[in-house]
Amino acid sequence: MLHPQRSLSELPKMSAASQVERAVLEEEFNWLLKEEVHAVLKQLQEILKEASRRFSMSTPGLESQLKQENFILGSSTMDQVKGVLTLQGEALTQADINLKVAKSSQVLHFQFREDKQWKLQQIQDARNHVNQALLLLNSRDETYQFKTGAEVNKLMDAVMLQLTRARNRLTTPASLTLPELATSGLMKMFTPPMPGDVMVNFYINLSKLCLTVYQLHVLPPNTTKNFKPTGSSVLHNPGAMFELNNNRFEVSHVHKVECVVPWLSDTLVFFTISLQLCQQLKDKISVFSSFWNYRPF
C-alpha cells in the first residue's frame, strides 16, 4: 500500500537505494562467510586444544606419562573423614581414607589395593566430548568455503552440543541409589576391605573432586520404624533407608569432603568462552538473515 504523500516517482529512487544497501550487505555477508567464520573457528580450535591438553597433562621430563597429582580432602581436625587422593588424568590411582567412627575414638584406615584404580567416568566423558567438538572444527579447514549462514549455524550447533554435554558431565554427578553404591565395584577396591556398615563414593562436581563416606546401621527385623527405601541421589542424607540381601539399613552419618582441581576450573572457563564465541557468530549470522527476510517495500 502506497503512502498517501509519496509520489510514484520516488519509488524507483528508494528501490535503487535499497539495492545498493542490499549489495553492501551481501558483500559484508560474503566477507563474514569467507573470512570471519574461519577466524572464529581457528580461535575455537586453539581454546579447545588447550582444554583437551588439560585432560592429559604429562609428567615434566616424562612426556609419555600422565602427571600424578595428590589432593588432600578434609584437612581440618574437625573433619570426621580425611582423604588423600591421587588423580592421574581421568583415573584415581590411589586413595587413602581415614574415618573417625562416630561415638568412639576408633579411626578406620582404608586404601586402594595396589592393583586397583578407579576411573572417573565424568572426566573421561567430558574429554571425549571436547575431542568430538575438535573433530567437527577440524572437518572445516581454512580452504573450505561456507555457502550459507545456515551451514555455519549447523556447525556451531553441533559444536555447542558437544561443549554443553562436556560441561554437564562435570557439573552434574550421577544420581545413584544406596544399593547401587553398596554393590559398586568401588567397594571392592580397598584394603582392608570396607566393613558392611561403611560406603564411599567419589565424583566430580564442577571443578571439585568430592569424597562422600556413609556410615550405616542395620535396622532390626522387628523394628517399628516406618521403612521407606530412598531413591536415587548424588548425596544421601542421614535417615535414608535401603534394603540389600534381605537386610534393611539406615544411613546414620554422612561425611562429605572436597578439594578444587585447578585444571578442571580452567577447563570450565574454556567451555564458557567457547560457547560464547559460537553464540556470537550465530548472532551475527541472524542479523543478516533477519534482513533477507524483511521486505520493507
Automatic annotation (TrEMBL):
Alphabetized Pfam families for the sequence: Rogdi_lz (PF10259)
Recorded GO CC terms: RAVE complex; synaptic vesicle
Compartments where found: Cytoplasmic vesicle, Secretory vesicle, Synaptic vesicle
Signal peptide: none
Classification via PANTHER family: LEUCINE ZIPPER CONTAINING TRANSCRIPTION FACTOR LZF1 (PTHR13618), PROTEIN ROGDI HOMOLOG (PTHR13618:SF1)
Family: Belongs to the rogdi family.
Protein name: Protein rogdi homolog
